[in-house]
């Protein structure tokens, strides 16, 4: 089967549009019928402009990015994204773990928030879409909801996790899995994790405040670029993840001496 490749603009527009539609179909109270879902279309030009503007921070000569967590480029990029959150009308803050969070209020603040977002730090010599698509598309979804005056019963939080590529620091702090001993570990930025959290506005001394317990988050949705070619080859715009590769890293020290020829 011949599949016409998508341009970058088409990819970003389709994936963000799918995410927007996911938030609009809201279940009513028990005994009430489900509200009629509404199809919304995001502003693809705006979203692609954001992707391009974000790629400036840590840009490499080859066109990718080296924006490791807690680096100056990461700090600048987070300031840029925070401005986008504020322009979207969100109440914005940085939690103790350095996660950047913007909230859209709801018709009933007693409901737990919906979370969506991703991360904007990269691996060394990384690309322009890993994490960035989920982060910026989440903001575009909120902008679209605001512009169409769509009210949600749940608060909607856009979350940009800290140091995802270097240890999943922000997301593991939210789940309560981050151990304090990890704050002394070095990162690719030259700072320890604890120093890095402070550098981007968090407070490692109050790390427990970032934790969210069962029931405190209604649901979490992350839009992510496909890291393979299955959907593209099948001509499918979007899919649901059923599994993910597991990665472990070790530091190995070998003691001895060179003796190649005996």
How would you describe this structure to a colleague?
Helix 1 crosses helix 2, helix 1 packs across helix 4 and helix 2 packs antiparallel against helix 4. About 4% of the residues have low confidence. With 262 residues, the chain is an alpha/beta fold. The chain has one domain: 3-Layer(aba) Sandwich (Aminopeptidase), CATH 3.40.630.10. Strands 1-2-4-3-5 form a 5-stranded mixed sheet. It is globular, with a radius of gyration of 20 Å. It has 7 helices and 5 strands; from the N terminus they run H-H-H-E-E-E-H-E-H-H-E-H.
Give the secondary structure arrangement, pairings included:
Blueprint: H1 8-24, H2 44-54, H3 72-87, E1 91-94, E2 100-104, E3 114-119, H4 132-147, E4 156-161, H5 169-175, H6 193-199, E5 219-221, H7 230-234
């Amino acid at each position: 089967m011949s599949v016409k490749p998508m341009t970058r603009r088409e990819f970003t527009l389709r994936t963000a549009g799918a995410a927007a539609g996911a938030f609009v179909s809201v279940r009513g109270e028990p005994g009430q019928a489900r509200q009629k879902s509404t199809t919304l279309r995001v502003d693809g030009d705006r979203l692609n402009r954001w992707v391009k503007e974000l790629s400036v921070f840590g840009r490499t000569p080859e066109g990718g990015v080296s924006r490791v967590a807690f680096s100056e480029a990461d700090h600048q990029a987070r300031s840029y994204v925070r401005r986008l959150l504020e322009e979207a009308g969100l109440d914005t803050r940085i939690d103790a773990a350095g996660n950047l969070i913007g909230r859209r209020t709801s018709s009933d603040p007693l409901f737990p928030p919906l979370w969506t977002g991703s991360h904007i730090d990269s691996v060394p010599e990384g690309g322009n879409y890993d994490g960035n698509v989920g982060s910026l598309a989440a903001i575009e979804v909120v902008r679209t909801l605001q512009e169409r005056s769509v009210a949600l019963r749940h608060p909607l939080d856009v979350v940009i996790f800290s140091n995802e590529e270097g240890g999943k620091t922000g997301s593991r702090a939210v789940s309560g899995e981050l151990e304090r001993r990890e704050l002394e570990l070095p990162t690719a930025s030259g700072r320890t994790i604890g120093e890095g959290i402070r550098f981007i506005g968090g407070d490692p001394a109050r790390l427990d405040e970032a934790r969210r317990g069962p029931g405190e988050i209604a649901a979490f949705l992350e839009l992510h670029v496909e890291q393979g070619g299955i959907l593209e080859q099948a001509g499918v715009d979007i899919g649901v993840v059923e599994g993910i590769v597991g990665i472990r890293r070790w530091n190995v020290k070998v003691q001895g001496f060179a003796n190649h020829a005996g």
